[in-house]
């Protein structure tokens, strides 16, 4: 049978062998606290490549030390990070997968010692630290840090860059009126709240001509927050700026109760794909082959991102192929596992 899940997909000049993407997931495994790639990363990511995932997106990797969620995050703020990342890229590519990296800054959700920064001096919740409101200089330096990160990602050999603009981290804080109360040109109107992301995309595009994804939180789940419809004009802007795909997640700008069920974020990916006419990735409780195939076949998204299912089963693509009646190549070392 011809499935969409196991058919190749070309984006921004890169051809993926299938439409299965490993969603970025923090491993908090840099025990040296200096942002460098450790043994854990060199086992964890290549295992999913052996599992036949088409594109692996490495976890949120911080463009500044201050932008880390925790001290154990991966980093890309220094040229010293390039060698480890290059090794990781080589290991994953050797096993036949493409590899991307998520460039991130945690903003007010950073849990590292020292000052934390955000568009406005509003804590995430009462128990959180109050961030410093970013000055124009802070903004310029952070945009530059994203560009430096992109340049290093290119030097390390990544195939894809994803900008993390979701989950209530720095860029998302600029976009959402719930976290951005600025009075200057970076706050207020929707255009002004987009300005920071627009500058980050422009800066990244100056040094990166490969596939560029942006992950968004398409709903703040709050009456005064952003909805998926608010992201349609933003997605159009991103497309104009040369973004190839919007990876559509949701939530976490403010604490909120989210009603989750299989494919709960898929309608957001579908809306943005249709209304902004841009490729999207769907993510969130996608766990079976037929469920993934449905999303693709009904034109609801172009790629399916899997998170926790790939933590449970690094070889999920084999299970999905069996479910869909497709035979996919196994590494030669494992062929005996398929013969009885
Ligand atoms: C352990 C863990 C770490 C995560 N870290 C990140 C991250 O670094 N960046 C990100 O955008 N999302 C992160 N997420 C969210 C996942 O990428 C994904 O969007 C979410 O888990 C929903 O998909 P799922 O139901 O397939 O797990 C993380 C999720 C988990 C479970």
From TrEMBL:
Positions of the NADH:flavin oxidoreductase/NADH oxidase N-terminal domain: 5-322
What is catalyzed by this enzyme?
Answer: A + NADPH + H(+) = AH2 + NADP(+)
One annotated GO molecular function is: NADPH dehydrogenase activity
Q: InterPro entries given for it?
A: Aldolase_TIM, NADPH_DH_bac, OxRdtase_FMN_N, YqjM-like
Family annotation (CDD domains): OYE_YqiM_FMN (cd02932)
This protein's UniProt keywords: Detoxification, Flavoprotein, FMN, NADP, Oxidoreductase
- Please name the Gene3D superfamilies in this protein's record: Aldolase class I
One of this protein's Pfam families, by short name? Oxidored_FMN
**Can you tell which superkingdom this protein's organism belongs to?**
Bacteria
The enzyme's E.C. designation? 1.6.99.1
Q: What does this protein do?
A: Catalyzes the reduction of the double bond of an array of alpha,beta-unsaturated aldehydes and ketones. It also reduces the nitro group of nitroester and nitroaromatic compounds. It could have a role in detoxification processes.
The protein's name in its UniProt record: NADPH dehydrogenase
């Amino acid at each position: 049978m011809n499935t969409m899940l196991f058919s190749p997909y070309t984006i921004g000049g890169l051809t993926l062998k299938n439409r299965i993407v490993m969603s970025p997931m923090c491993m908090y495994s840099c025990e040296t606290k200096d942002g460098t790639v450790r043994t854990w990363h060199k086992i964890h990511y290549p295992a999913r490549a052996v599992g036949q995932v088409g594109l692996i997106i490495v976890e949120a990797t911080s463009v500044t030390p201050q932008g880390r969620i925790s001290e154990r995050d991966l980093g890309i703020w220094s040229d010293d990070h390039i060698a480890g990342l290059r090794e990781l890229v080589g290991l994953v590519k050797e096993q036949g997968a493409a590899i991307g990296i998520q460039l991130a800054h945690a903003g007010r959700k950073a849990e590292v010692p020292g000052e934390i920064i955000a568009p406005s001096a509003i804590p995430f919740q009462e128990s959180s630290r109050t961030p410093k409101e970013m000055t124009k200089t802070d903004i310029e330096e952070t945009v530059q840090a994203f560009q430096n990160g992109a340049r290093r990602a290119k030097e390390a050999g990544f195939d894809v860059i994803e900008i993390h603009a979701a989950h209530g981290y720095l860029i998302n804080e600029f976009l959402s009126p719930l976290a951005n109360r600025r009075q200057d040109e970076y706050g207020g109107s929707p255009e002004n709240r987009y300005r920071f992301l627009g500058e980050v995309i422009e800066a990244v595009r100056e040094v990166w001509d490969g596939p560029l994804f942006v992950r968004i939180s398409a709903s703040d789940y709050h009456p005064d927050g952003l909805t998926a419809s608010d992201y349609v004009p933003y997605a159009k802007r991103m497309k104009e700026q040369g973004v190839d795909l919007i990876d559509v997640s949701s939530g976490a700008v403010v604490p909120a109760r989210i009603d989750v069920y299989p494919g709960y974020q898929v309608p957001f990916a579908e809306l943005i794909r249709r209304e902004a006419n841009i490729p999207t990735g769907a993510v969130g409780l996608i766990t079976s082959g037929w469920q993934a195939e449905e999303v693709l076949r009904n034109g609801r998204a172009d790629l399916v991102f899997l998170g926790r299912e790939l933590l449970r089963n690094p070889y999920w693509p084999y299970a999905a192929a069996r479910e869909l009646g497709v035979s996919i190549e196994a590494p030669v070392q494992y062929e005996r596992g398929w013969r009885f």
